[in-house]
Specification:
The structure holds two protein chains of two kinds. Chain A folds into two domains: about 240 residues, Rossmann fold (3-Layer(aba) Sandwich), CATH 3.40.50.300; about 240 residues, P-loop containing nucleotide triphosphate hydrolases (Rossmann fold). In chain A, about 30% of the residues lie in helices and about 25% in strands. Chain A starts with a strand and ends in a 6-residue tail after the last helix. In chain A, the strands form five sheets. A six-stranded mixed beta sheet of chain A has the order 6-7-8-3-9-10, with helices on both faces. In chain A, helix 13 crosses helix 14. By secondary structure, chain A is an alpha/beta fold. Chain A is globular. In chain B, strands 1-2 form a two-stranded antiparallel sheet. Helices cover about 75% and strands about 0% of the residues of chain B. In chain B, strand 1 and strand 2 form a beta hairpin. In chain B, helix 3 packs antiparallel against helix 11 and helix 5 packs antiparallel against helix 11. Chain B is mostly helical. The chains are: A alpha/beta, B mainly alpha. Chains A and B meet through helix 1, helix 10, helix 11 and strand 18 of A and helix 8, helix 9, helix 10 and helix 14 of B.
Chain lengths: ~500, ~325
């Protein structure tokens, strides 16, 4: 019998239909993938399941009884826990305090039983083979990926019958993502139901027993995972054929060096890096997470202190802060890791976000020209096909893919021709991913030089002209041509010997 | 037009509140809407408005300036001392004190932007230090009366209009240009919305922060001199009321106290609301203690209206994520 049966589920927000007549069924002991583009209704669906949102119509049966939780606490009491993309953790608390937050083991005096909490934390971490987490670490010192892992532990601490993972791997580097996939199998083997949202087809392929595809708020299809091809899935997701996710790799690199970095070090995580990025080239940066990729990108952009030398288009350049990095046609621009925290003013309009870095370009005699600004905005909205009602729409109300496009637009308007792209497709739907890759190739063809990091290894393999693999804050290998493969990257990232 | 109203709903609300308050007050005190009474209301509001100008910039940028009371008071007392009741020294005393106010702002700004001192601590400290310096300087003795010229600026009229109202109008124009029409304004709203995003977008965050405190120092010092003209002399503690009113005017004017939104045009309405309230309560036979209670209640009310819209917005943002 099915553990969860959903029929005719609908939800409206004012005039917007988020879900209409969605159906779903899943059994205990299976990993069930939810697929669909951003805005397809997956998130609304799991918000309803997790008790965060109430549905307007339709029915949910869990174990044969009507399920309508008043809030997430009630859902958890019924054995349904969710791990969301938007991290719900408290930076000032430790790992274990976060994991047990509001469910702390108590002593007889109702104070927190720290010994018991530590014991339970260690038991949990060990049972599920959690990668390197210390219970007493302060959360604010953890990376985004580590926080995501804490979030997963927090969900598991509720010992749920149904665990919902919303793009849990998107923040994780390869090794940790792999661990998570193993974990989902383990949970399913324990008889739990794991509902899993991912934009990565390979993951879905690796772990899902069954999958349900959403489009425009409705269920399009449900399949046994091994009975359907990737192509069929993608076609059903987007409702049309997507030719290819990755554009053809045309070699556009010239001999002109756009960015030369020598002896470049920053903090304790980046030491003595040397490399050259050529005009028209897409240079991938790979390796296991936490080996200096973030530091490299931030330091090149002037967001953190660094030593060593940088030459842009043959000229030695000092970059002490992002403002200097973004100055002029010989500048260097960054699409940052954290879209919401570093990239966008969520409560400001698309227009204000797009033009924030180039206010000088539409200032005349010290005053802003709204016409000139509108022209710049239109240029980018058209060029990047940003889907927004008007340019006055608040950036925070756009879909993830369109938010990312706004950040791209902001950086492209600066006219900097060296682009640093740090995981630009994270949490972006498959259609927009394809557009972003195509954009990267188009820009390279126009003479832009692109440094590209992705936590999704196939992206590096299929999009980059060359891939530098980082290890322990240095460059372990540079792979070219046929040597670029997931295996080659992993080998260079993990083995101590240098790989050609 | 409707888009403008939607975007600036809280500012429109502040003006609506001001009009309602005017009518209510007129109901209880029939002479309230007379020309002479409106004139004196505007004059009183101007002092609040001028101090709150700098405060508006600081708050939009995500900070707060608690040093306004004693920047104001210091400027008032030093001006009175240096001028000794004469007009002529104003030629150099006024620029000197404006520069002094700006300098205090510079210290506040550098402390906040470069050394990472929390704005509350930084500005509270300069406020207390200035208070101490002035006490040492004056030894508590009264100062000479205000020069005639400064009295003219505060209580004089040109063609029936109070001079200070004209000054306020001019400053409103400048502030509006800065916020709506200059790069500085864009930088400021970005900074107050998210300092990290602003930094990653190439906004000169440190310079922008420092500038807001400099403006606040300038307006507080300027208001101190004008207020001396209004009272006829400078005295200790004359700035104290302006700590609360300057922040309250900004909040009533629709700015988020957390930064990133608001406009000086809203603050102007806020300053008027606060001043009209001081006129309403005597009409209702209420004491000045009651005024303070009403002040506090109004602030809580307006800030909660503001944060409700904020929470509503947050809800909308979350939904669209699906």
């Amino acid at each position: 019998m099915d553990l969860v049966t959903v029929k005719g589920l609908s939800k409206r927000y004012g005039g917007i239909v988020a879900l209409s007549e969605a159906t779903f069924s899943a059994r205990a002991g299976e990993v069930h993938a939810l697929l669909g583009e951003n805005g397809a209704g997956k998130s609304t669906f799991i918000q309803i399941l997790s008790g965060a949102v109430k549905h307007d119509g339709g029915s949910i049966l869990v174990d044969g009884t009507d399920y309508r939780p008043a809030n997430p606490d009630a859902a958890q009491a019924l054995g349904i826990a969710a791990v969301f993309q938007e991290l719900s953790l408290i930076p000032d608390l430790s790992v274990e305090q976060n994991i047990w937050f509001r469910h702390e083991p108590r002593t007889l005096l109702r104070t927190v039983n720290r010994g018991e909490m530590r014991r339970k934390t260690l038991a949990l971490l060990e049972k599920y083979d959690f990668p390197a987490l210390r219970p007493d670490q302060e959360l604010r010192r953890l990376t985004l990926a580590e926080r995501q892992i804490v979030e997963i532990a927090k969900g598991l601490a509720k010992d749920p019958r149904i665990l919902i993972l919303d793009e849990a791997t998107s923040a994780l580097p390869a090794r940790e993502a792999e661990w998570l996939l193993k974990l989902t199998r383990q949970l399913a083997a324990e008889g739990r139901l794991v509902i899993f949202i991912s934009h990565r087809m390979a993951e879905v392929r690796a772990i899902a027993d069954r999958l349900t595809i959403f489009r425009n708020g409705s269920t399009v299809a449900a399949h046994e995972a091994n009975a359907v091809s990737d192509n069929e899935i993608v076609t059903q997701m987007i409702g049309r054929h997507l030719d290819r996710l990755y554009p053809e790799r045309v070699a556009t690199a010239t001999d002109c060096i756009a960015l030369r970095v020598k002896n470049f070090s920053s903090g304790s995580r980046l030491s003595q890096v040397d490399f050259a990025l050529r005009e028209g080239e897409v240079l991938g940066v790979g390796g296991l997470q936490g080996h200096g990729q973030r530091e490299l990108f931030q330091a090149l952009f002037g967001a953190s202190k660094a030593s060593g030398s940088i030459e842009l288009w043959g000229k030695p350049t000092l970059i002490n802060n992002p403002r200097q990095a973004l100055t002029g046609k010989d500048g260097i621009a960054l699409v940052p890791e954290d879209r919401r925290g570093q990239g966008l003013l969520l409560t400001k309009s698309v227009r204000e976000n797009l033009t924030l870095s180039v206010i000088k370009r539409f200032t005349e005699n010290g005053l802003l020209s709204r016409q000139k600004e509108a022209a710049l905005v239109k240029e980018m909205v058209d060029f990047l096909r940003i889907k927004a009602g008007t340019s006055e729409q608040l950036a925070g109300t756009l879909s993830g893919g369109n938010q990312q496009k706004v950040i791209f637009g902001k950086m492209l308007l600066t006219q900097a021709r060296v682009l640093l792209l740090y995981d630009p497709t994270r949490g972006v739907d498959v259609g927009t991913k394809g557009e972003i890759f195509q954009l990267m190739r188009d820009l390279a063809a126009k003479g832009y030089a692109i440094l590209f990091h992705s936590s999704d290894m196939p992206e590096l393999v299929h999009v980059a002209d060359r891939v530098m693999v980082m290890r322990n804050g240095g460059i372990a290998a540079a792979l070219e041509g046929d040597h670029i493969s997931e295996e080659g990257i992993l080998r260079a990232a993990m083995l101590e010997t240098r790989v050609a | 037009m409707s888009a403008f109203l939607a975007r600036n709903r809280l500012i429109v609300l502040a003006y609506a509140g001001m009009v309602v308050l005017l009518l209510v007050t007129a109901l209880f005190s029939p002479g309230f809407l007379s020309v002479s009474n409106m004139r004196s209301t505007v004059v009183l509001a101007a002092f609040v408005g001028i101090v709150a100008l700098g405060q508006t910039f600081v708050i939009i940028g995500g900070g707060i300036d608690l040093s306004v009371p004693w920047v104001l008071n210091s400027a008032a007392i030093i001006m009175a001392l240096l001028c000794g009741g004469q007009d002529l020294p104003l030629v150099w005393v006024m620029p000197l004190l404006l520069a002094g106010g700006a300098f205090i702002g510079l210290i506040n700004g550098v402390g906040v932007a470069q050394f990472g001192v929390p704005p509350i601590i930084m500005t509270l400290a300069t406020n207390v230090i200035l208070q101490g310096l002035i006490l040492v300087l004056t030894g508590g003795s009264p100062t000479p009366s205000a020069p005639a010229l400064i009295q003219f600026l505060s209580v004089g009229r040109i063609g029936g209009f109070p001079v200070i109202a004209l000054i306020w109008l001019a400053l409103t124009l400048v502030a509006t240009l800065l916020l709506s029409k200059a790069a500085f304004g864009r930088h400021l709203y970005a900074l107050g919305t998210s300092a990290t995003v602003a930094e990653f977008s190439g906004v000169p965050t440190a310079r922008t922060t420092i500038l807001t405190y400099v403006i606040s120092g300038l307006t507080a010092a300027f208001a101190g001199m004008l207020l001396t003209g209004y009272s006829g002399q400078a005295y200790l503690g004359m700035g104290d009321a302006y700590l609360f009113t300057s922040i309250a005017a900004v909040a009533i004017g629709g700015a988020s106290i957390l930064g990133g939104s608001g406009h000086y045009l809203g603050t102007v309405a806020g300053a008027m609301v606060l001043t009209i309230l001081t006129g309403l309560l005597p009409a209702l036979n209420l004491s000045s203690g009651a005024l303070l209670i009403v002040y506090g209640a109004v602030i809580l009310l307006t800030v909660s209206i503001g944060s409700e819209t904020f929470a509503g917005l947050g809800g909308r943002l979350r939904r669209k994520e699906s």
